[in-house]
DNA sequence: AAACTATTGTGAATATAATCACAATATAAC
DNA sequence: GTTATATTGTGATTATATTCACAATAGTTT
């Protein structure tokens, strides 16, 4: 089974391939993708072999075919719909983020307890939390994003799970308790910055020695 | 040398410890922190041993002491200043994100090429890109965030590096070329969602078998 | 068409990270 | 004060991920 890093790399290969396609490239070598994704060529080929993606010895890979194969693995053969709970800073930015549509990801609705944020007529409607369950069931939504404050995050998770959502990205700075049948990834902005601070300090110190 | 995951876990332990402190906890066991960070107790102790953090056999760890030790490792003994390049959706959300101040992280200025976004009188000023270098040097900034579109990201990185910034979080969906003396972490929102889609689909399929 | 070369694909080796097993020991119980 | 017990701390082991080494082979050159 592939690990998280491997899937992240697939996304990066796909990004690079889309750029190459835009430049009318027809074929590509593991070495090219390695450069684009800042990994080794063997890593690229090992990743591909895990998914039975093969090229031609000495001939490389066909760009179109490779995009198609990776897209299927990443679920990009159809639009994937997400909802967002919590329309604060982060929630609002996500709803308007232009990068998703290009990649077959659609944020179809936001939910918040604050009535002043509700707007059912907007292109992407902001709805009361009570309507989440019906909305999710009616539209067959499987994915959600939690962008509420830490104290509200566990409850937000449970509402989502009860409605049938199975994959969740959590921006709240707290570790959530999830049942085994769902996938929750945590993305903590403070933690990301703390990481950069640590490794920059470490690198600087090491460099001075 | 600790790896990235280890430092992420330290941040999570610290988060949990702050909550325990708010509840007037005086001591804590590796087992408690393990629950909070969703890892094993041995992992917690191994992480601590890497930094020579020790507790008392059968007595656990003192909350205050532990917070202080982890804070020092993560550079939280002083405020760490960041700037942001690119005041679009993401950049703006970050500038107003309330979670940073609590954690000794301060976003001190934003920069953009679009003059309509400039505002030097705001609490956190938005300045022209040309002023970045002077601002960074005068204020001794070491950290930055890239929140520009992909085509502008490499140039943004180089501007930052020339000004003396050494640690960077990159939100642009592209892999940047960086010299060895700096630290660049990529955080790609599309990629994060693709990851969730993949593992949710995988888990669902596996569950159905 | 034969020889050469660049590239893939993968088993084996290595490196890295997590877990196990248990000794050391501080605290609690009696 | 002695015994029992809960907890830490860590060397040894196992698991996981990456890199190495090289055989296979498609394309290129002569």
Topology order of chain A in helix (H) and strand (E) letters: HEHHEHEHHEEHEHEEH
What strand order characterises the main sheet of chain A? 5-4-3-6-7-8
Work out the helicity level of chain A: 40-55%
- Radius of gyration from the alpha-carbon trace of chain A, in angstroms: 20 Å
Query: Which regions of chain A have little confidence, pLDDT < 50, spanning 5+ residues?
Result: none
Distance between the termini of chain A: 41 Å
Please, what is the average pLDDT of chain A?
95
Show the largest interface.
A-B, 62 and 62 residues
Given the helix and strand composition of chain A, which structural class is it?
alpha/beta
Strand content of chain A: 15-25%
Q: Please count the beta strands of chain A (DSSP E, at least 2 residues each).
A: 8
* Quaternary structure state of the chains depicted: homodimer
Biggest sheet of chain A, in brief? 6 strands, parallel
**Backbone shape of chain A:** globular
Number of helices of chain A: 9
Give the topology.
Two copies of one chain form a homodimer.
Chain A: H1 4-22, E1 27-28, H2 30-37, H3 41-50, E2 61-62, H4 63-73, E3 80-85, H5 89-95, H6 99-102, E4 105-112, E5 126-128, H7 132-139, E6 143-146, H8 150-163, E7 167-170, E8 183-186, H9 189-208
Parallel strand pairs in A: 3-4, 3-6, 4-5, 6-7, 7-8
Antiparallel strand pairs in A: 1-2
Helix pairs in contact in A: 1-2, 1-4, 2-3, 7-8
Chain B binds a DNA duplex (30 and 30 nucleotides) through helix 3.
How is this structure best described in words?
The structure is a homodimer of 209-residue chains. The first copy, chain A, is of the alpha/beta class and 209 residues long. Chain A has helices at residues 4-22, 30-37, 41-50, 63-73, 89-95, 99-102, 132-139, 150-163, 189-208; strands spanning 27-28, 61-62, 80-85, 105-112, 126-128, 143-146, 167-170, 183-186. In chain A, helix 8 links the parallel strand 6 and strand 7 (167-170). The N and C termini of chain A lie far apart (41 Å). The model of chain A has no long low-confidence stretch (mean pLDDT 95). Chains A and B meet through helix 1, helix 5, strand 7 and helix 9 of A and helix 1, helix 5, strand 7 and helix 8 of B. Chain B binds a DNA duplex (30 and 30 nucleotides) through residues 3, 5-6, 29-31, 39-43, 45-46, 48-49, 54-61.
